[in-house]
Write a structure and sequence with these properties.
Strand order of the largest sheet: 1-3-5-7-9-10
CATH architecture of the largest domain: 3 Solenoid
Largest sheet: 6 strands, parallel
Number of strands: 10
Order of helices and strands: EEEEEEEEEEH
CATH topology of the largest domain: Pectate Lyase C-like
Number of domains: 2
Number of helices: 1
Structural class: mainly beta
């Protein structure tokens, strides 16, 4: 068990390190590399990770509270049952990441690459997904109420049983969506119909 508080690291290589069960408080990591690092059950609170590489990192059961991961690489990372509470994840890439059982509580996931991610049955209320790439993602039975999906890419996204009520859908390409079984509010239904040329009074 280790604890780092108010530390600042720049371009440090933590690849293949054993960083399990640790606690990071208000630390800053800029352009650091965590490739294949063992970070299971570690926690971060109020930290900032800027342009860091977590390719193949093991982050199972890690907990992050009000931390920022800006333009980070999580390709092939294992985030099984990890938890992100009110974190800022803008611009990060989650290609091929293992995200089963993940918990996302509020936060900003704008401009993230979440293609083909499995987020079905997740509580995603009030999360900001501005221009996020959710192409082919599984959002079946997810709760997206009051989230911000402005200009998000939802093409081929699975939305059966998804609750979209109150979500901001400005700039979304309705024609690319399969909304069968999704729950929508009146404004969303009108936007959907208008995208197909219907005149709604």
């Amino acid at each position: 068990m280790y604890q780092y508080t108010d530390q600042h690291y720049e371009a440090v290589d933590f690849s293949d390190r054993d960083l399990r069960d640790g606690e990071l408080l208000r630390c800053i990591f800029e352009r650091c590399t965590f490739t294949n690092a063992s970070m299971e059950e570690m926690t971060s609170t109020g930290c900032r990770f800027i342009e860091c590489n977590f390719h193949g990192a093991m982050l199972n059961a890690s907990i992050h509270t009000e931390s920022a991961f800006l333009n980070c690489n999580f390709v092939d990372a294992n985030l099984f049952v990890s938890k992100f509470n009110n974190c800022k994840m803008t611009g990060s890439d989650f290609s091929k990441a293992q995200m089963d059982g993940i918990t996302l509580l509020r936060g900003d996931w704008s401009y993230t690459n979440l293609r083909y991610t499995k987020l079905n049955k997740q509580d995603l209320r009030e999360i900001r997904f501005l221009e996020a790439d959710l192409f082919g993602a599984n959002l079946e039975k997810a709760d997206l109420r009051n989230s911000d999906l402005t200009r998000a890419n939802l093409a081929q996204t699975k939305l059966n049983g998804t609750d979209l009520r109150g979500a901001i859908m400005d700039g979304v390409n309705w024609k690319s969506l399969d909304v069968k079984g999704a729950r929508m509010d009146t404004a969303q239904a009108v936007g959907f119909l208008r995208s197909f040329g219907a005149k709604v009074d």
